[in-house]
């Protein structure tokens, strides 16, 4: 039967066996054993009865996902749990952040970037931080955050497998860039002089992290992505991550031009100041 893995002290857990769900509402012990017929099948034992666990849907099929429990929340509810608060945040930013604390109105391009920073901050803090905290037990948990990531892992199994590089990128993004995204919106409202520098730092960090995320999978031959499934390959893996490539590039270009202009103005001021000093010395 192989080696058993021991899990205890859970108060509520469910297991789907064929067409039924097993719900255990007291402390229990579950022993997992490697199945003999298929490498990605597991067996678990409850009160002496052996059950075969459902085959996981992740790529590659030979990957081991101990304790995997399929999602029970409908797909539309999973999307709604993410998109509804996201839309509320976008509306609050669009209609609530029209001008700074001095009453000066923000331009359309600034407000578009505010929306993106708000979306990024919400995603990093409310979705990715739970992943960094619970990625080790995500396979068998049934909370909304785990089910969001199990659904996305169908497009990129590096998350359900807790691949080290992916987890490291998510830790940096969630815990550092998430708060920074919200901070930069506040700095714009306060007209703080560091706002464009912070924007540039966030944009470069996002561009670097997303590039590494894509490039690593490309160099591995897309072994974790179902390339034959357009929904997971192009929608989940491609489109859903593309804003973190597109917007950072736009922000870098804008801030490059803006800061270059500021530096040019500063250089002219310094030159005029030196000219005035030289004229005073002559007199």
Automatic annotation (TrEMBL):
Membrane topology value:
Multi-pass membrane protein
Q: What subcellular locations does the record give? A: Membrane
Q: Can you provide one Gene Ontology molecular function annotated for this UniProt record?
A: C-8 sterol isomerase activity
Which of UniProt's keywords are assigned here? Isomerase, Lipid biosynthesis, Lipid metabolism, Membrane, Steroid biosynthesis, Steroid metabolism, Sterol biosynthesis, Sterol metabolism, Transmembrane, Transmembrane helix
Give GO BP annotations, semicolon-separated.
Answer: cholesterol biosynthetic process
Q: Which residues cross the membrane?
A: 75-97, 113-133, 167-189, 196-214, 234-253
Top-rank taxon: Eukaryota
What protein does this entry describe?
A: 3-beta-hydroxysteroid-Delta(8), Delta(7)-isomerase
Q: Organism source for this protein?
A: Holothuria leucospilota
